[in-house]
Amino acid sequence: MSILNYCAKLNEQNEMFPSVFDYAQEHKVPIIDADSLNVLKHQLRLMNRKRILEIGTAIGYSGLHMLSVADDIHLTTIEKDKTLHDIAVENFKTHGALSRVNAICMDAKEIDPDALGHFDMLFIDASKANNQFFFEKFEPLLDESGIIIVDNILARGLVIEDEITNKNLNKMVKKVDAFNQFVATSEFHASFLPVGDGLLIISR
């Protein structure tokens, strides 16, 4: 067992939403890894985040977990896939969280950010090639003490591979790495965490 697997095992929690988790596994819907989810929720508790903007709803798995941290958390979440959006809305409804969710079915690249309001946390978990675009578009909506969390910054380990034969995959990985390097050399405070598929926490 590697050190990373050892820590991942310790980070495992009892699944709060087994039906949503099982659906994701059965239908191959990408969801946040368990140990990354644990860090994400821990950050919410530590920093008392209440107004979250999520880019990439999928079926609402991470959204449900974030809302479970406290009853006064409100989530605005954006998903461009209508089928996934509808499933997420049903999941929020089933688990009694829909009243605290503004679920938007739209391409996040096209939405007017000024219509969304202000937030104290931004969670980016959508198209990995667009991490920098989403960061630059939605970061201005954060309060001064707001934080940004980005999932999948390791691209399943491909960010350190020198030769990727698939051109589209290679292009995506290069964009993921370029965003990581941008953040690392920016004036933002950042922590790159080797949990799950890599989690990035950014603050001003």
TrEMBL record:
Q: One GO molecular-function annotation for this sequence?
A: S-adenosylmethionine-dependent methyltransferase activity
**Keyword set for this entry?**
Methyltransferase, S-adenosyl-L-methionine, Transferase
GO biological process, alphabetically ordered: methylation
Classification via Pfam families: Methyltransf_3
Protein name per UniProt: Predicted O-methyltransferase YrrM
Q: Which InterPro entries match?
A: Cation-dep_OMT, SAM-dependent_MTases_sf, SAM_O-MeTrfase
State if Methyltransferase is listed as a keyword: yes
PANTHER family cross-referenced by the UniProt entry: CAFFEOYL-COA O-METHYLTRANSFERASE 3-RELATED, O-METHYLTRANSFERASE-RELATED
Q: Which organism is it from?
A: Aliicoccus persicus
Transcription regulation: present as a keyword of the record?
no
What SUPFAM superfamilies does the annotation carry? Answer: S-adenosyl-L-methionine-dependent methyltransferases
